[in-house]
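Co-fold these.
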Amino acid sequence: AQSVTQLGSHVSVSEGALVLLRCNYSSSVPPYLFWYVQYPNQGLQLLLKYTSAATLVKGINGFEAEFKKSETSFHLTKPSAHMSDAAEYFCAVSDRYTGRRALTFGSGTRLQVQP
Amino acid sequence: DSGVTQTPKHLITATGQRVTLRCSPRSGDLSVYWYQQSLDQGLQFLIQYYNGEERAKGNILERFSAQQFPDLHSELNLSSLELGDSALYFCASSAADRVVGYGYTFGSGTRLTVV
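Predicted complex below.
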């Protein structure tokens, strides 16, 4: 079964610093990949998705992610952190070819932004 | 507002009781997915319905059941509640039966507390 591993359950950065949240997937075939963000007491909001059109994917709020097949990774980055980016971030995967109907989520990374 | 409506937002009930969580999908979406989010288990897929039919089952306990009605709203029934059932329950919707690269739209969740 497809799975994703998010390295680091907590990441802390200073305001204005680079944000890097790591996600690795387990699949021999490139899957669909997603990043979601969850703000406190809210549902999950789609940040961006990879569906093979381009390996560098731009999302909302200045985030982007690069799909690297050789590294089976889909890390999320933002050049300059803002206080409003503090939230929990989830990487998710879906099997492109077996038609798995549900997204499988990683365990999440809580991003803290220090002033 | 994501367009996916979940009620109630909060629910406190006693062990052994039964509760019903309700979800109205985004307009035009035919699929409804239920997820459980807890601190120790993360986001776990429970069950999916598409246009009234059950399509996929995840880690759903036998004490839990769901259905999707002709107007496409869905209900998740949790019975014989245990302390460990305390969690956030999310509903998500999508237009398609399978994950085809669009991801889901999530509701804001129902926080269930079993005392």
